[in-house]
Amino acid sequence: MIFGSRRADSTHRSSGLRKLLIAGVVAAAISVAAAPAAPASSASSAVAPVADGPDLLYGGTGSTCFWHVGAIGVEDYNIAYPDAGAHYWGAIWTHVPGSTLRLKGQFPYARYTSLNAYDRLGAIQDTISDFQWNPDKGSSNPFRVGVRRDVARRNYTLTLSPGQSPVAFDPNRRSNLPARNTIYTEPAGGDTIRGIAIRVYIPNKGKNIEGGVSLPKPELTLADGTVLTGQAACAALGSETAQTLDPSALLLSAEQYDALRYQPGKPDYFPALAGGKANWRTQYNRTYLLNLYRPEADPMQGATKLGQAGFFPNGDNQYVRNAINRKFGKIYALRGKIGTTAKTFTNPKGKWKATDLRYQSFCMNESPKTTRVMDCVYDEEVPLRAGGKYLVVTSRAVDKPKNATAKCGVAWIEWSPRGDGGTDTNFGWMQIRNMLPSAGFKHAIQGTKKPGDEKKVLGEHLPDSKYYKDKKAFEKLGCPAK
Fold first, then answer.
1. Mean pLDDT throughout 403-432?
2. Which sign, positive or negative, has the C-alpha torsion 394, 398, 401, 407?
3. Are 302 and 430 in contact (CB under 8 A)?
4. Which parts of 355-403 fold into alpha helices (H)?
5. Is the pLDDT at 155 greater than 70, yes or no?
6. Which string of DSSP letters, residue by residue, matches 95-123?
């Protein structure tokens, strides 16, 4: 089923893709959805999962007996605020005592790939990014500075350790981390079920969603030295039969969401601010996310980036979001500055260069009721002016201005006609994503430390915004749009 519109070039736009829900989400992941009138201390009480949510997607495009969840994308499973530039696959298995599990694969022809390990609540246990992986002997890592992106020999071997990471997860990861080929998969508490996700962002032009290579294959070495591969390894791991809970537990029920959204005395444009004023908020954890609907709450409540249970996020990304509303204008425009990023889609033969960010995107989302994405543009699709300045516009398709085109210096994003996914069809949630900033880039979202410091840290990289009454009002800016 299709939950969000995508554009025709699916190899480029990827088909709008999913944060992976792999190990099953439980009701505790939405515990902070208690009625807004309750005191802050009651926000930890559990609520029931949604009963009619979608099932996980098994055996889709590119999937294998090990990577059995996915490929996941907007067209099939649009939940947890995906990015339109990536595909995701998940693996769920039961650890075999005394065994060693490795993945053998090839680096994709793409902008980015990574592995994330999760617990059953969707909290990250460990992340390793492509540039960290040492290639096999005789091969090269095309994600390292100075290496050609089209290098032919590009093999790697990764170990999936059954233990816990010896180092605490850093939610503000940057691109200068040390090399390693081990990801730690044991959740706190010694759960025997393991879950990981592999992501591939922006395959090169003409490559498939896996980035022109197969997903890495499992190699299981048992305690007695027996080596299992292919279907035999999957059978020993139970990767095709591992049980998950209903992933709709991530979502709020209609009653829970309406209690947050439709509070007595709140204006009809709530939770957007009066006069269309911007309220950019870094993503910390789910409590802080939902406190958008509780402006009276302590701004520091939930303000830790370590509490990511329920999101199954990419450990290399950080986000800021701003709630907007069409009652202030049918066109919403962002003007800001973007850090340098790689140009990879049409540049398969170039060498990898150091940049401010690995990736940046702008996405229009629905509300926490559905956690759906409608549409995104990523850095390579955004026409830049002098100094890296951009103009990004969102509107419904029927309201799209004639000059909201790359030719006129404008990147356009479609605003969901569903609004919040409930009864507020005017709601919108603009999200900006930063991935793997360089060590020296000081204006990344990864540099934020507390609520309210977004402008101080990001500077011009946190955009100014403006509503326009309708498309005619925006078209008066001409072409190129001023």
1. 96
2. positive
3. no
4. none
5. yes
6. --TT-EEEEEEE--SEEEEEEEEE-TTS-
Residue 211 carries which side chain, given as an amino acid letter? Answer: G
CA distances for 180 relative to 119, 132, 157, 323, angstroms: 21, 6, 11, 39
- 452-469 pLDDT, tens digit per residue, is 999 999 999 999 999 999
Give SS3 for 129: strand
* Region of poorest pLDDT, from 63-77, 269-283, 404-418, 434-448: 63-77
How do beta strands 331-337 and 317-325 pair? Answer: unpaired
Smallest Cα–Cα separation from 292: which of 267, 273, 312?
273
pLDDT for res 48: 28
For residue 179, the model assigns a pLDDT of 98
CA dist 118 and 186 (Å) reads 8
Distances (CA, A) of 83 to 18, 193, 242: 6, 27, 26
Query: Please, which pLDDT band fits residue 23 given cuts at 50, 70 and 90?
Result: very low
Could you give the dihedral angle defined by the CA atoms of residues 304, 308, 311 and 312, in that order, rounded to the nearest 10 degrees? 140
What's the half-sphere exposure (Cβ side, CA atoms, 13 Å) at 92?
23
Name which of 332, 288, 272 is nearest 470 in CA terms.
332
465 secondary structure, DSSP code: E
